[in-house]
Amino acid sequence: MSRSDFQSDPGDLRELVTDHLRSAKSSWNIGAFGAIAEFHRQPSEAADVREFAVVTAGGAIAVRLEERCRANSTSRRRRRAPARTSAAARAPGAVTGEWS
Length: 100
What we know:
Layout: H1 10-22, E1 28-32, E2 35-39, E3 48-49, E4 53-56, E5 59-62
Antiparallel strand pairs: 1-2, 3-4, 4-5
């Protein structure tokens, strides 16, 4: 399923999650203030892939989809930072690009 064809209904969401769990190219993370959990795997890494779970020697992930779950894209495009930046923009922690 291509992303342009994706509609956020429960059947499509189940397919989207299953496809990404099967793919070693997909990474997963979830976080709250002060804590984060991540799951990544290498294509060569042995994995026990189930409908909504993946288990490897290094870790595991399981996803439970409830009826009310819907997909939500959080990706943002970032414009290129200007080639020249001021001394203030080069300071640690400074943001040099613009978000669109």
